[in-house]
Amino acid sequence: MTRLALGIDAGGTRTRCLVVDETGAQVGTGSAAGANPNSSADTVAAFTTALRAATAGVPREVALPIASAVVAVAGAGAAGRPAAERAVRAAADATGILFDALHVCSDCEAAFAGGSTDPDGTVLVAGTGSVAAAITGYTVVRRRDGHGYLLGDQGSALAIAIAAVRAVLADLEGAGPATALRDPVLAAVRDDAAVRGRTDAAELDDVQAVLAAVYGNPPAHVATLAPLVDVAAAAGDRVALRIVDDAVSALVETVRVVRSDADALVITGGVASGDGLLGIRLRAALEATFGVLPRVVHDGVRGAAALALRRLPGIADGVADQLVC
User: Fold this and answer.
1) pTM
2) Euclidean distance between the first and the last CA atom of the chain, given in angstroms as a whole number
3) What string of pLDDT tens digits covers the 325 residues of the chain?
4) Closest Cα partner for 23 from 9, 6, 8, 3?
5) Which of 225, 258, 305, 293 is closest to 19 using CA atoms?
6) Of 238, 247, 242, 248, residue with least CA distance to 180
7) What's the order of all strands across the beta sheet hosting 139-145?
8) Axis crossing angle, helix 238-258 with helix 157-172, rounded to the nearest 10
């Protein structure tokens, strides 16, 4: 019987699932909302949706059990791993999927595995959250940040969005400079379901509408405002440019803490890989600081599937290498 390997990349905003066979060929894919246990709305539901979609077209006699599964979860360091594993197992029970072997790891490991055939290097994940890690044998040996929205994630989309909201609040209350972020942020806030769904929505002033939108959603949802900063910065808004520069500086410093001079550098996440001003400035700053061109990985799920293949007995390294971007 053909053995299957499964990889899941669960971020704060989106969850992706990829099933491959032991030759590395794609068997099925699925996606869902974010499944970060620390900041997403319903982790089990997201895993369930992604798993169900990825295995929908696979005959049950082939799909069960999955020989090797690797689930890479943002926030799945030692502190967050038990909750992430419980959520994955609950989703597997809900979909009737069995695992011969299940390994939960951090998104750092999956991202790096998706961009490097060398098992050692450095990775920066800068999306909804942010973390950098030194990797040895496709395993994190040292990390910086990834502390979540309350304690860290400097330079992340969520940190950028929070900085933008704070700047808009300061503008509204006369405590800070005027910013071009004001109108687009307020438009997004007024259109947010947490505000539109209120019976008193029309009575809320702008400040209260901002508060209702921010606190009426899971933390990761606020990160959807981050692209507005990129647009305003590209148009020359000084407040937005300062937020961009602060994010770039924070992310470069995060990498510096764990970086080894000779390592390859893999980067992933919407902030790190974006085509806007922020992404361009970040990649240029990383190259200038460390003297190496960052390898951009757009989808960590391929790395998770590659890791699952590498953990499957009897599979040559070259098979998993096919999934590396």
Assistant:
1) 0.83
2) 28
3) 688 999 999 876 789 999 999 999 998 898 887 766 655 567 888 888 988 888 887 766 555 688 999 999 875 555 567 777 888 888 888 888 888 898 998 889 999 999 998 899 999 999 988 999 999 999 999 999 988 888 999 999 999 999 999 999 999 999 999 999 999 999 999 999 999 999 999 999 999 999 999 999 988 899 999 999 999 999 999 999 999 999 999 999 999 999 976 678 999 989 999 999 999 999 999 999 999 999 999 878 999 999 999 998 888 778 888 888 7
4) 3
5) 305
6) 238
7) 139-145, 130-136, 121-126, 265-268, 295-297
8) 150
CA dist list (Å): 78 to 126, 131, 270: 20, 14, 25
DSSP line for 70-111? EEEETT-STTTHHHHHHHHHHHHHHHT--BS-EEEEEHHHHH
Q: Quick one: tokens of 154?
A: 């400097």
> Cβ(179)–Cβ(171) under 8 Å?
yes
Check if the beta carbon of residue 305 is closer than 8 Å to that of residue 7: yes
